[in-house]
Amino acid sequence: MRPLHLSTVVLFLSSSLGTTGVLMSSQQTSAHAAPIPADKYQWLEDVSGERSMAWVRSENERSAKILEADPRFASLAASALKVLESPDRLPSPDLHEGLVYNSWQDAHHVRGILRRTTLSDYLTPTPKWHTVLDYDALAKADNQSWVQHGLTCLYPYDRLCLVSLSAGGEDADTLREFDLKTGAFVPNGFNLPRSKQNVDWLDQDTLLVARDWGAGSMTKSGYPFIVKLLKRGQPLDSAKEIYRGTENDVSVRIQTLHDAQGHTATILSRGLDFFNSELSLLTPTGPVQLALPGKSDIEGLLHGHLIVSLNEAWTPEGHTTTFAQGAVVSLDLAAVTKDPQHLKPTTIFTPTPTEFVQEVGVTRNHLLLVTLENVQGRAYTYSRAADGSWSPHKLTVPDNQTVGIVSTDTVNDQFFLGVTSFLTPSSLLLGDAATQSLKEAKSTPPQFDASKDIVEQLFATSKDGTRVPYFVVHRKNIVYDGSNPTLISAYGGFQVSRTPTYSGTTGKLWLERGGVYVLANIRGGGEFGPAWHEAGLKTHRQRIYDDFTAVSQDLITRKITSPRRLGIVGGSNGGLLMGVQMTQHPELYNAIVIQVPLLDMLRFEHIAAGASWVGEYGSVSNPDERTFLASISPYHQLKPDAHYPEPLIFTTTKDDRVGPVHARKFAARLEELHKPFFYQEIIEGGHGAGADLKQTANTFATQFTYLTRKLMD
Fold first, then answer.
1. Does 7 have pLDDT greater than 80?
2. Under 8 Å CB-to-CB from 26, ≥6 apart: which residues?
C-alpha cells in the first residue's frame, strides 16, 4: 500500500536536477542555523551528463586498478558467482491456483525466466519445470536490458497478468499484458509505457492506473497521484479519472483485494507522507474515505472482513476501547461499505512488550501471522469463529531462526514459510492452515563450512540507557584479544526489521575465511514494533546513530575486535548510517562500505524520490529539523582536519530511487579535502547490487576485496 521505500540493500545477505529556486530554498538559513556554503558539486546531479559520467569513469578506473588488480579479487568473484548461480539454491515458490511459479536466474538465464510446475512435482528433488516467459529472449528481441520486476495478475490469478519490465533495474517500469496459459503476450493487450506507476485489475477488461499522465500529474517525490480507469483497447489519453491526491503527497496507490468467498474490495491509498495514508474504498458511486487512523495498512480480505494492521493506537469514533499500536484487527466489509465513518473493529492480535507482528497472509479460510519475539521468529494461524472472534494456533517452527511468509493460496489453505538463520541453510516449510500442519518441503545444501562457527545474541547499552540487541557470528574458538576482523551491518529506519539470514556469499567470502559478522538491531527498525521505529524519527535520529556506536564500542570492550579490525557496511538508509558513523566516529573503524546511500541531507528532498522520506527524516523547510539535518549530514560534516578511514562508496547510475548523486558528491568532497577513498558506480542494478548475477558477484568481490585488505591483511 505504500510507495517503494529505502528498503535494505541486501548485498551481504543473499542484497532530476534541482532548479535554482529549489537550491536557494534548500539553503535558506534561519535563526537556528548557520549558513551552508554553496554546493560546488551540484553539477554531479546531472545523472547521465557527459561531464558527470566522465568523472564517474575516472573514479571507477582509479579504484578498479587497485581492487580488481588485487590477486584475491578473481577468486572472490568466482566464489560469489558459484554461490549465486548454484543450481541447488532454493527456487522460491509463488502459489497460484494450485500451481507453483518461480522466477529463476542462472548462468544460462542471465536475465531470468518465469517457470511453473505442479505443487506435487515442486516437492520432488528435481522438479520438471515448464518455462512460461524467457526474459533473456525478450531482452534480445527488444534490444533492451530488461530486469524483471514481477507480475500483477487478475484474480483468480490463473491467466492474465501484467508483466513489469525495468530498463536496467530502475523503479520506473513498462507493463505488458501476458497470458500465463498460452505463454505469450496478449495481442493488442494492455501495454503501459515506462513510468513510475502503480496498477491493479478491476476486472478482465479494466485497469485502475496511477502513472505519469503528463505535466502536473506526479508528486514532488516523483510518484503518481492521479488514478484513472483504463478500458481494454482504450488509449491512455482517453482513460477516465476517478481519484486524485495532490502533488505534495508521496503517492497514490491501488490495491484490489479478493477472498475465496467472492468478496472484493478496491482500496485507494493516498500517501500523505511516508507513514500516514488516507485510505478510501472504491464504491459504485466513487471512492469513499474510511475512518481509519493514518498509520494503518489494509493487509488482506478474508470471509468478507478487511484485515488491518495498526501502527498507531486507535480509538474509533463512538468506541471506548483503544486498540494498541501494533495490533491487527478485522472489519466487516459490508458494515464498512454501509457506514465507512463509524467502524467497528474486532481484535485479532495484540502485541506484548517483546512480540510484534511482522507479516500477514491470507489463505482460503485462515489468517497467517508471523511475529518477532525478542527478534526470534514465530508463526500463527488464526481462525474466525461464528461469533466473530479470532482464535490463534501457534505453529511449531525452529528456534533461533527467522521466519517469513513466502506464499499463500486462496484456492486452498496451503502456504509456504521460509526459515533461515546465519548458519543453518535456508529451508521451506509447507503448511496447511486447515489441519494446522507444517512440514519441511525443501532445503538448501550448505554453501559454506559453518562447522567452526556459532551465533550469540548480545546487548549493548546506548547513550540514553536503552538496551540494544545484536547478533554476533564468530568462530567457536574465538580469542578475545581484539584481533578478529569484524563486520557490522545495520539499517535503522523505516520500520524495517533486520533478522538472521543465511547468506552463502557472506559465509563463503567472509565467515569461512575467519571473519566475524555482526547484525545490530538498532532503533529505527521494526524489530520491537512501531515504537522502536518512532523513537528515531526526524530530530530524534541521533538515537539510532548512538545505538550503532554503542554496539561498535561494546564489541571493542568485549575484545571481540578493535578499531584496527572493525569495519561497517550499510545500504540506502543504512548508507546514511555509514556516512554518519564515518563523520561522527572515524576513530572506531578501519573500513566503511557505503552502498547506494543518502549523504546530502540538506538537498535530499530534491534528489530522485527524496521528497517521499520527509516523514522519516524531516524537512529543511522546518528550521529545527533543518538544523538537525545539517548537524548529521555526512556530505556537510566532512572536515579538512579530520582523519577518516578510507571508505568504499558504491552506487548505480540507474538508481532512480535514491540516485547516484549522494555518493558522487560525497566522494568529490573527499577528493577536494585530499582524503583517500574507493569508488564504484555500475550502470545497471537500480537500487541494488547489479542487474544480473555476474554483476552482483563482481560487486560482492569488489567489496570483500576491500574488506580483506582493510581488516584481514
1. no
2. 18, 602, 603, 605, 606, 620
User: Residue 418 forms beta bridges with which residues?
Assistant: 404, 428
Q: In what order do the strands lie in the sheet with 355-362?
A: 355-362, 367-373, 376-384, 390-394
Q: What is the DSSP string of 51-112?
A: HHHHHHHHHHHHHHHHHTTSTTHHHHHHHHHHHHT-TTS----EEETTEEEEEE--SS-SS-
Strand-strand pairing, 486-489 and 566-571: parallel
209 within 8 A of 197, measured Cβ to Cβ: yes
- Tell me the CA distances in angstroms from 122 to 59, 86, 119, 293, 429, one per residue in order: 47, 18, 5, 42, 13
- Decide: helix, strand or coil at residue 6: coil
DSSP string, 566-601: EEEEEETHHHHHHHHHHHH-GGG-SEEEEES----T
High-pLDDT (> 90) share of the chain, %: 91
Q: Which residues are catalytic?
A: 572, 687
Q: How many residues does the chain have?
A: 713
Pick the closest to residue 223 from 255, 254, 252 (CA basis): 252
Assigned C-alpha cell, 44: 554531479
Q: What domains appear along the chain, each with residue ranges and CATH number? A: 20-81+447-712 (3.40.50.1820)
For 552-574, write each residue's pLDDT tens digit. 999 999 999 999 999 999 999 99
Read off the pLDDT of each residue in 342-359 and give the average, rounded to a whole number: 96
Least confident of 356-360, 410-414, 452-456: 410-414
pLDDT tens digits, one per residue of 492-510: 999 999 999 999 999 999 9
Whole-angstrom CA distances from 640 to 583, 648, 665 are: 11, 19, 16
Alpha carbon distance 442, 365 (integer Å): 25
From 507, 508, 489, select the one nearest 498 (Cα to Cα): 489
pLDDT for the residue numbered 650: 98
Q: What's at 670, amino acid-wise?
A: L
Q: Are strands 648-652 and 678-682 parallel, antiparallel or unpaired?
A: parallel
Rounded Cα–Cα distance for residues 454 and 335 (Å): 53
SS3 category, 546 = helix
List, for residues 536-555, the tens digit of each pLDDT value: 999 999 999 999 999 999 99
Residue 35: which pLDDT band, with cuts at 50, 70 and 90?
A: low
The dihedral over CA atoms of 297, 303, 304, 307, expressed in degrees to the nearest 10, equals: -10
pLDDT computed for residue 37 by the predictor? 62
d(CA 595, CA 292): 37
Alpha carbons 403 and 538: distance in angstroms, whole number: 30
Closest CA relative to residue 664, chosen from 611, 583, 598, 586: 598
Tell me the mean pLDDT in the region 170-187. 96
pTM over 0.90: yes
Q: Is the pLDDT of residue 33 over 60?
A: no
Per DSSP, 538 falls in state G
